[in-house]
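[Discussion] Sanity-checking designs against the backbone

I'm trying to build intuition for which residues belong where. Below is a structure token string of 81 positions. I'd appreciate it if someone posts a full sequence so I can compare it with mine line by line.
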């Protein structure tokens, strides 16, 4: 699998690197955008994007009392690979 194919379906060591690079590379713009987000205590948020889950982790830090439920498509993202 080529390096860039790992952006679509991360697998193996290349996939681990790709997910880490997504979290690192997208971090500044994600933090900037989340600054403008004002959520009600009973808000519901669906994170259905790509990447390693850094944005949902940031949201959960903002609202630690939220109920957590998530689904990961790939074993690597579930911590199984």
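Best answer:
Here's mine. Compare freely.
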């Amino acid at each position: 699998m080529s390096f860039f194919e790992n952006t679509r379906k991360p697998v193996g060591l290349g996939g681990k690197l790709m997910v880490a690079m997504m979290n690192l590379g997208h971090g500044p713009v994600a933090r900037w955008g989340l600054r403008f987000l004002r959520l009600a205590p009973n808000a519901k948020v669906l994170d259905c994007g790509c990447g390693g889950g850094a944005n949902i982790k940031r949201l959960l830090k903002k609202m630690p009392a939220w109920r957590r439920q998530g689904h990961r498509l790939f074993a690597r993202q579930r911590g199984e690979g």
